[in-house]
Amino acid sequence: MEILKTKAAMRAWSAEQNAAIGFVPTMGYLHEGHLSLVERARAENRKTVVSIFVNPAQFNDPKDFEKYPSDLEHDKALLEKSGIDALFLPAREEVYPSGVPKLRLSYDASMARLCGKFRPGHFEGMLLIVHNLLMWVNPTRAYFGLKDYQQFVLVKSMARDLEFPLEVIGCPLLRDADGLAMSSRNVRLSPKGRAEALAISRALKKTQADFPRLKNNLAELKAAFATELKPLSIEYAEICDADDLSEATGRAEPTKQYIAAVAATVDGVRLIDNIFLN
Ligand code: AMP
User: Fold this and answer.
1) Which of 22, 27, 90, 175 could bond 94 through an S-S bridge, CB–CB 3.0 to 4.6 Å?
2) Ligand 1: distance of its center to the CA of 183 in Å?
3) Does ligand 1 have an atom closer than 6 angstroms to the CB of 181?
4) Are 103 and 127 in contact (CB under 8 A)?
5) What is the mean pLDDT of the chain?
């Protein structure tokens, strides 16, 4: 595994490969969810690149940025074992030599909802770094987890609208055996907090099970979803059209896909999760 620390080295490595390149961008503190993306990228491309960069521009809460977990040596060992070809590991000054650019990439409707409503600037910062990483890595395919469903929808739209010559691929959300969605932030949960957080995946699974019965009354489905989550401190709990993330009310249309999505804070840790309802 080659370790590339500069944009120039990354671009040069990419240009040298005469083969399909799969790319998995991450913020490190890797877990099996990340590794499932790596495995898929390896299976579908001749070369695989992973990046680790904790992007300050996408943290609306500076404390969340400071507390973001990190264990680079462990990440490197996991990636070495996974058989990737290159790790792109730029320092902050390499990524933002003149500070965070003022350019804002944004969408109105789909970006303003769900996490976008509660994390001002988060998705603009995320789109900027993903845009730049895609330029430097120039992959054939880029892999994103459906755990961050809104991120996936926005990145896919950006890649299409800016005509990046690549495929954006969404990979299934991985859960721990107890149902909690895997996340680098889970390490910050106390045992009690973790037990409380299980209400999130339970509520999502119940909502998925309720969908066939309540598909003609999505407002009632949403109310039942909120009731299940009541013990938690909820930011949002929504039933959405999976294509454009608009709020789904009334009757479900048979040709459309729907998701239930939630953000909650447990032990001061912000957790997000979602499930496809049909
Ligand atoms: P992060 O390091 O949290 O920015 O995540 C890097 C990539 O891994 C993103 O595309 C995430 O959606 C994906 N990812 C994180 N957690 C999971 C999970 N539990 N299952 C699948 N993909 C995940």
Assistant:
1) 90
2) 7
3) yes
4) no
5) 97
